[in-house]
Amino acid sequence: MMACGSVNLPPGFCFSPTDEELVLHFLYPKASLPCHPNIIPELDLSLHDPWELNGKALSSGNQHYFFTRVKENRSTENGYWKEIGVTEPIVSASEKVGMKKSLVFNLGEAPQGTETSWVMHEYHICSSSFSTGSCGSTRGRRKSNQCRSKWVLCKAYEKKSSQSQQGVSSYSDENDSGTELSWLDEFYMSLDDDLEEVMSHPN
């Protein structure tokens, strides 16, 4: 199933892990046991624009999951990933086990790129919690930390926008991180607009 480098989920199945599950059940085994079988494939971030991920990454709905090596420069042939916001901690059993960075894809060269509707979350392991993992010896922990520094887990997706064209659009708010507008918020906002229009044209 992994021979082609990707996995297609059967109808009715949805791969939708939480941030905690992504770090503990996928990123930790990848970092400590590089040969550990994993349904999430490895990709070179610099070789793939986000709209090329479908069929190469593990795709579930509009979300694409893949491992890539840690890079300072996240440029591709047609653009670059730019970090936005702050780094969020990922906590399990009151312990910080990882962190999540948010990025948005820009077309063109930095810093004059054009922002698109493509967003990516980049998951990292916390070195402090990783060093207390299952490796028994100091030598094992040192080796694991070296592996940990090589890999991150990425989740990329395109935000929905009515003005999208070839992956480019204004950055629309959609409920994903808890700080963005949900469809219900947008619905109520549209009702407010309709009410204002009715009040401005009395019978």
From TrEMBL:
Keywords for this protein: DNA-binding, Nucleus, Transcription, Transcription regulation
Domain NAC per the UniProt entry, residue ranges: 9-159
GO molecular function annotations of the record: DNA binding
InterPro entries: NAC-dom, NAC_dom_sf
Pfam families: NAM
Keyword DNA-binding: yes
GO biological process terms on file: regulation of DNA-templated transcription; system development
SUPFAM superfamilies (alphabetical): NAC domain
UniProt keyword Transcription regulation present: yes
Full protein name: NAC domain-containing protein
Organism for this UniProt entry: Sphenostylis stenocarpa
